[in-house]
Structures are given as C-alpha cells and as structure tokens.
Write a structure and sequence with these properties.
Elements: E1 8-9, H1 10-22, E2 29-32, E3 40-41, E4 45-46, E5 56-57, E6 61-65, E7 71-76, E8 90-94, E9 106-109, E10 113-115, E11 121-123, E12 131-132, E13 143-145, H2 153-162, E14 166-170, E15 175-180, E16 184-185, E17 195-196, H3 203-209, E18 219-223, H4 227-239, E19 243-247, H5 258-264, E20 268-272, E21 274-277, E22 283-288, E23 294-300, H6 304-322, E24 331-335, E25 346-353, E26 359-362, E27 379-383, E28 394-399
Parallel strand pairs: 1-21, 7-8, 15-18, 15-19, 16-17, 19-23, 21-25, 24-26
Antiparallel strand pairs: 2-14, 3-14, 4-13, 5-12, 6-8, 6-9, 10-11, 20-22, 22-23, 24-28, 25-26, 25-27, 27-28
Helix pairs in contact: 1-6, 4-5
The protein binds ligand LQZAQKY5 and molybdate ion.
Cofactor: Mg(2+)
Protein name: Molybdopterin molybdenumtransferase
Domain MoaB/Mog: 176-321
Length: 408
C-alpha cells in the first residue's frame, strides 16, 4: 500500500502534523509555579486584582497633604495599611512600595525635602507623580497572556505578581525512541560495513527542545531487523509514550519493517512520505490508545540528516499541537547565495545565519547521510517546489529548535 504513496506537500505535511497533535492535546492540569517552567498555559492568564492592587509609593520620602510646611503625623512602611491623611498641612513618612494614604496630594523624595528646627517638612513634588496607580499595569480580570503561551520564568513571575499559586497547563508529551538497523554500532569507530548509531544519542535532545519528556530508558535499539522484533519493540514503546519515534526502515528494502508493523498495529497514516529533499520517506501515523486517546508514531528516515528534517517537519509541529502551543512558524531571511530548487519537491538547504539573523549562508557537507553541515547550521533555507532562490532573495527559513546560546 505505502510503496506507491503520493508524497504530501511539505507545508501541508507540517499543517497535518500540527492538527493531529492539537486534536489529541492532553488534558489541563494544575501545577505549582516553580514546576511550571517549560509548560504551556491551558487557559489565559488573567489579572486576579488590579495591578498594582493599591496606590503604591515609588520612592522613600513623604506623603503630603495641602500646602507646605507639613507636620509629620506618622509613618507607613511597605506591607502596612496606610491610615488616611485627613488634614491639610500634615504628612507621613513613606517607604518605597508602601501604600499611599488616601488624601495624600503628592509624594516628595527624602533627598529633595528639608526639615526645620520644629521638625516641619518642606519641599516641592516633582511634576511626574511618584506613585503607581491601581490598575496601571493591569485591571482585574484583564487577559495578560493567551492560552497556548509557553511558560518561561517571566510568565511565572507575572503569575506570582497576580497572586497565583498554581497554573493550569498542558502535560508534556512523553516520547520514546526506537533505533532500527542491524548495521549500527553503539560504541567504537565505524568500519567493515558498520556505522555508528548517530540518531539514538541525538534525537532525545531534539525531542526535549520541542517540549517532550524522554527518559534514557525510553531509548532502545538497535532493534533487530525482523518484523517480530519491530512489533514487540513498537508495542512496548507505545505502552509508555504519547509519541514513539523510530529511525530507519521507512523504505521498502528487504529489512525495512516499519510499514508492515504499522499495518499490523491498525495504524492510520497522518502523513505517508513528504515531497521534500532530503527526507521524503518520513511518516507520521496515529494508533488508537487503550484509553481512547491516540498515540503517534513518527517514522524518521535512516539517513541521519533526513531524520532530523523529519523531526522538524512532522515531530516539532505535532509536539506543539499536543502541548496546545501555536504551530512553529517560519521566519524570512535573505539568502547570501543561490539555492537550487528540487523540481516538484521542497528543498531544505542547511544554512548558517549571520550575527543579526537577517541573512543565511548555505553550509557545506549537506548530504542526507551527513551531519557535519547540520552541526554548523542554524536551520534550513526553504525553496518551494518549482522555484529556486537567487543570491539576495528573501526566502522562508526553518530554524532548528536550538536554545539560546547554542550556535552563537
Ligand atoms: N530504492 C530506493 N532506495 C532508497 C531510496 C529510494 O527512493 N529508493 N531513498 C533513499 C533515501 S532518500 C533515504 S532517506 C533512505 C531511507 O531509508 P530508511 O528509512 O529505510 O533507512 P535505512 O535503509 O534503514 O537506512 C538508510 C541509511 O541510513 C543509515 N542509518 C540508519 N539508521 C542510522 C542511525 N541510527 N545512525 C546512523 N546512520 C543510520 C543506514 O546505515 C543507511 O545508510 O533510503 C534510501 N534508499
Ligand atoms: O530523502 Mo533521503 O531522506 O534524501 O536521504
């Protein structure tokens, strides 16, 4: 059946993978603020009160009422409740962060005030008010961040400011990885027909950068090149994961058992081959889970660069959808050199961004069996079917899911 599958357009494949994830997103759960880093908001974050919740002094000084000089009648510190200032010609000493008393007309900085022998305070307020008004930052119930926002330290900070103890977030998808290929070595140098497995060690890092959890125990292989071994390994991996990635065996060679395994499991293809070079034999399949929620299997081609292309084409959008995040977007950059097209296929050409991220230069060593170019690139220049890019053209750019500080 799959031998003659029609490759899906690359953009459409990304959209199908995202929709498949979105429709299977995990249920919202409540997580304490310190644990929420890296999760995704399941509901909009709203202000629980006005922010600030009360008129708040921005300075150390005096809260005054009426014309000067002012008689000091008390003090209000941060954390205290300020008594009203009822009488003209009076003031209270006030600390930064303290509640401004009702009735105060102005705040005067301590260093811009004087006190006479009788202890009366004088000074001139600045033209700009020295306190923050209730609701200046947000009004009660105002939406501060939409559902789907990635929770980062600043999001946790603003939630704490609002008074949240827990956040309603999506679960992180759990992933597993099965490496297929009897020719693979897991230690030592390549030779005599054997190559090192370069996907088992790297795919978990990419999956984590896309928001998945993957334990070292959820990485297995090389799985023997028999249908029975494939079936057993995939069944076992699916029992503990929302997504199982496999590497190799996506074609129809004598020891490629992925498609027969999927047929045996009653899987339904979301995407079966993509019109992209490199990477076209990639696939994404949906498998019914015991609890009614679907599980997913992403078949990454064996050629290592193609496997990473499959990851960012199908797995990154799927994981974004499962987490309730927006679909990963392409940016636009100028290509510093011409990039040929690939006929009816989309061409993904590894490229390195310049310092300001505006221009991309194609890198060398970009064969689908190579990883050298990938380790030196920020992502891929995208050349759509039937087109080519000339030096200086603005082109779409697909970034690798690197984190800040990687590949400076
Ligand atoms: N008759 C055809 N043969 C092939 C075609 C084709 O169109 N017609 N396409 C080629 C392309 S493109 C790709 S990509 C590969 C995909 O094949 P599989 O997904 O079935 O992968 P394998 O055959 O298992 O391996 C391909 C290649 O990659 C090496 N490999 C596999 N796993 C790893 C790993 N974990 N680490 C490092 N290297 C790995 C493997 O040794 C092979 O050299 O099919 C082509 N063939
Ligand atoms: O499409 Mo293959 O994935 O070029 O190496």
């Amino acid at each position: 059946m799959s031998v003659d599958a029609t490759p899906v357009d690359w953009e459409q494949a990304r959209a199908l993978a995202y929709e498949a994830g979105r429709s299977a997103a995990g249920p919202a759960e409540l997580i304490s603020l310190p644990e929420a880093d890296g999760r995704t908001l399941a509901e909009p974050l709203r202000a629980l009160t006005d922010l600030p919740a009360f008129a708040t002094s921005s300075i150390d000084g005096w809260a005054v009422r009426g014309p000067k000089p002012w008689r000091v009648i008390g003090r209000v510190l941060a954390g205290g409740v300020a008594a009203p200032l009822d009488e003209d010609g009076t003031c209270v000493e006030i600390a930064t962060g303290a509640m401004v008393p009702v009735g105060a007309d102005a705040l005067i900085r301590i260093e811009e005030s004087t006190r006479d022998a009788a202890g009366l305070v004088s000074g001139a307020p600045r033209s700009i008010p020295e306190w923050r008004l209730p609701g200046e930052e947000a009004h009660k119930d105002e939406e501060l961040l939409p559902a789907g926002t990635a929770v980062d330290p600043a999001v946790i900070g603003v939630a704490a400011t609002c008074g949240y103890e827990v956040l309603s977030v999506r679960p992180r998808p759990r992933a597993g990885l099965l490496v297929f290929g009897d020719e693979l070595l897991t230690a030592g140098t390549p030779g005599a027909g054997r190559v090192r497995d370069s996907l088992g060690p790297q795919v978990p890092g990419w999956l984590r950068r896309c928001g998945a959890i993957i334990d070292p125990a959820a990485v297995a292989g090389p799985v023997h090149d028999t249908l029975d071994a494939h079936l057993e390994a995939v069944r076992g991996a699916l029992a503990g994961a929302d997504l199982v990635c496999t590497t190799g065996g996506t074609m129809h060679g004598p020891v490629d058992h992925l498609h027969p395994t999927l047929a045996e499991l009653g899987a339904e293809y979301v995407v079966n081959t993509v019109a992209v070079r490199p990477g076209f034999p990639m696939l994404l399949a949906r498998i019914p889970g015991p609890d009614g929620r679907p599980r997913f299997l992403a078949g990454l081609p064996g050629n290592p660069q193609s496997a990473v292309i499959a990851l960012i084409t199908l797995v990154a959008p799927l994981l974004a959808g499962l987490q309730g995040r927006p679909a990963p977007a392409l940016t636009r950059v100028e290509t510093a050199a011409a990039v040929p097209g690939r006929g009816d296929f989309t061409h993904l050409a590894l490229a390195r961004l310049d310092r300001d991220g505006r221009s991309a230069t194609p890198v060398g060593h970009v064969g689908s069996a190579m990883l050298r170019g990938l380790s030196n690139a920020h992502g891929f220049v995208v050349v759509r079917p039937g087109t080519q890019a000339a030096a200086g053209d603005l082109v779409p750019f697909l970034p690798l899911p690197l984190v800040a500080g990687e590949r400076p």
